[in-house]
Design brief:
single chain, 5 helices, 67% helix
């Protein structure tokens, strides 16, 4: 999913749908996190990606909290979506975050 499509999709959601979307996206991102460590081990195979996922999770949690408490000082939809998807320094990771966003979007009835 291209960034512009993702922005249009997310912006078209109601506030309640955005809350659900962000919770579901957060879950999808945990799957990406599993690529960052060895199974049955404490060893990270990709600590940089794990840090990047953690930063995205932090932004999602912050935005979700703002939606839940009706705090309008949150990021604009466009800015949030770009922070989630765009990672020009690592195109492989960017593909993964776009995939996670699209997988989440596919669970909604709004056209993707």
């Amino acid at each position: 999913m291209k960034t512009e499509e993702a922005i249009a999709f997310f912006s078209a959601l109601s506030v309640d749908e955005q809350k659900e979307f962000l919770a579901r996206l957060s879950h999808e991102l945990t799957i990406l996190g599993r690529d960052c460590y060895e199974i049955d081990s404490e060893n990270f195979t990709n600590p940089a990606q794990m840090r990047a996922i953690n930063e995205i999770q932090h932004r999602i949690a912050s935005h979700l909290l703002s939606l839940l408490i009706r705090d309008n000082s949150r990021y604009p939809d466009e800015v949030l979506v770009k922070m989630i998807i765009e990672h020009p320094q690592n195109k492989n990771f960017e593909r993964k975050t776009a995939w996670a966003f699209e997988q989440t979007a596919n669970k909604f009835s709004v056209a993707v």
